[in-house]
Amino acid sequence: MYSVYVLRSLRNGKQYIGWTRKTVLERLRQHRSGSTRWTKQNGPFEVVYEEHYSDAAEARQRERYLKTGCGRADMTKLIPR
Questions:
Q1: Per residue in 31-44, pLDDT tens?
Q2: Which residues span the domain enclosing 71?
Q3: Which of 36, 41, 64, 77 is the most exposed place for a label (fewest CB within 10 A)?
Q4: Distance from the Cα of residue 1 to its chain's centroid
Q5: Cα–Cα distance between 19 and 57 in angstroms, integer?
Q6: Contact in structure between 64 and 18 (CB atoms under 8 Å)
Q7: Looking at the DSSP assignment, which residues form a beta bridge with residue 6?
Q8: Dihedral (C-alpha) 64, 53, 18, 66: value to the nearest 10 degrees?
């Protein structure tokens, strides 16, 4: 099982879009620990959206789409502010 997820920073409201083979909560723990420079600077986070896929290629494709202008516009319809 693969997941595409959106995190929102509790500090500044910025969103992080990613995909993982792990559980979203496990991945959230990694982000909260500051596993990358961006997450270290913008955390802590909350999970605001997730989708599940059986295929890694589908999950990666969906993540890429959500990072585009059209994908971000669609996300505003899916995720309430």
A1: 888 777 888 899 89
A2: 2-78
A3: 77
A4: 16
A5: 10
A6: no
A7: 17, 49
A8: 40
**CB of 58 closer than 8 Å to CB of 2:** yes
pLDDT at 4 over 90: yes
- 48-73 pLDDT, tens digit each: 999 999 999 999 999 999 999 999 99
Residue at token pair 């890429």: 64
User: What's the helix, strand, coil split of the chain in %, to 5?
Assistant: 45, 30, 25
The structure's pTM equals 0.90
Q: Looking at the 3D structure of the chain, how many domains does it have?
A: 1
Q: How far apart are CA 5 and CA 27, in angstroms?
A: 10
Sequence-distant (6+) residues with CB within 8 A of 46 are 7, 8, 10
Strands 15-20, 2-9: pairing is antiparallel
